[in-house]
């Protein structure tokens, strides 16, 4: 995340700031210029300009630097396209390496979760509600966590099971829960979603 001696080598090879239309190069130039006082302490080993980049790319900057003094090289005003291409290639190569490193360090994406309150209705007042709840809680899935529950009177002595769960949206859906819960046909008449909230 800090400039290196490679940046300093390229910076010193440029006689003037890049033109405004090369805004990425100009941004880089101004950034490196801000390290004027610390340039000797930056990491890396300073090499000749053409020695940076992939190992299998031929150094074409030597011919350009032989004909001029290093201090007089103006990569953006020069007619020597090879020097300019080498510089732009270096910028692209170094920026892509930094981007790849930054991307690998990014925090993982936030997992979307929901809190669901389910109403599970039994067949009648003789249904064993403890067994019904045991059956519901026996449903296990990646991204599903069961929470608190209570029995709520419906009428005529019948109570329904109201149970809370937290699900990861990408892994568990209400359709899957309904299918698995209503599969306990001896105990469950139906299942409804009483409340659904994103967390």
From TrEMBL:
Q: Which SUPFAM superfamilies match?
A: eEF-1beta-like
Keyword Iron in annotation: no
Q: Which domain of life is it from?
A: Eukaryota
Keyword Cell inner membrane attributed: no
Gene Ontology molecular function: guanyl-nucleotide exchange factor activity; translation elongation factor activity
Q: Which family does it belong to?
A: Belongs to the EF-1-beta/EF-1-delta family.
- Please give the PANTHER family that the UniProt record associates with this protein: EF-HAND AND COILED-COIL DOMAIN-CONTAINING FAMILY MEMBER (PTHR11595), ELONGATION FACTOR 1-BETA (PTHR11595:SF21)
Q: What is this protein called?
A: Elongation factor 1-beta
């Amino acid at each position: 995340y800090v400039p290196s001696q490679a940046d300093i080598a390229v910076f010193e090879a440029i006689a003037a700031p890049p033109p405004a239309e090369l805004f990425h190069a100009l941004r880089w130039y101004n950034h490196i210029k801000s390290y004027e006082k610390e340039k000797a302490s930056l990491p890396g080993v300073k090499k000749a300009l053409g020695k940076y980049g992939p190992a299998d790319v031929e150094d074409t900057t030597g011919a350009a630097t032989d004909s001029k003094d290093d201090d007089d090289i103006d990569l953006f005003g020069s007619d020597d396209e090879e020097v300019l291409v080498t510089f732009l290639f270096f910028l692209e190569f170094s920026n892509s390496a930094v981007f790849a490193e930054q991307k690998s360090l990014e925090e993982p994406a936030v997992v979307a979760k929901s809190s669901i309150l389910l109403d599970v209705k039994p067949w009648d007042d003789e249904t064993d509600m403890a067994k019904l709840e045991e059956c519901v809680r026996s449903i296990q899935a990646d991204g599903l966590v069961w929470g608190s529950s209570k029995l709520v009177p419906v009428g005529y002595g019948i109570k329904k099971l109201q149970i809370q769960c937290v699900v990861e949206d990408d892994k568990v859906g209400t359709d899957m829960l309904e299918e698995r819960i209503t599969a306990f046909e001896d105990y469950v008449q139906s299942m409804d979603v009483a409340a659904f909230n994103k967390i």
